[in-house]
Amino acid sequence: MSREEHVPGSKLSTSAGNAYGNAAASQAAVATTNAAAEDNRTIYYVCGDCDKRVTLNKSEAVRCNSCGYRVLYKERTKRLLQFEAR
């Protein structure tokens, strides 16, 4: 049983226990929905040999569509990332 499926305190008969169990159940439903959405998204890579853009789903083989090369690099994000150095 995974951590997301386990709902601690769901067998309590008090009203606080029921409210906690309902909140945990709704969070588990949201986590399941997010996991399903992550399975359907495509991720963009760049081929290490021909530098073409390759899109892959989770279940596809790691291989360039045009040249068949198996080394793919994940594209860098366009979002601004800022780190604080000490």
TrEMBL record:
The answer to whether the entry has keyword Ribosomal protein is no
Q: Where in the cell is it found?
A: Nucleus
Read off the InterPro entries from this record: RNAP_P/RPABC4, RPABC4, RPABC4/Spt4
Any one biological process term the GO annotation gives: DNA-templated transcription
> Which domain of life, per UniProt?
Eukaryota
The record's listing under SMART domains reads:
RPOLCX (SM00659)
For molecular function, the Gene Ontology terms on record are:
DNA binding; DNA-directed RNA polymerase activity; zinc ion binding
> Single GO cellular component annotation?
RNA polymerase I complex
Q: Give the protein name, as stated in the record.
A: Metallothionein-I gene transcription activator
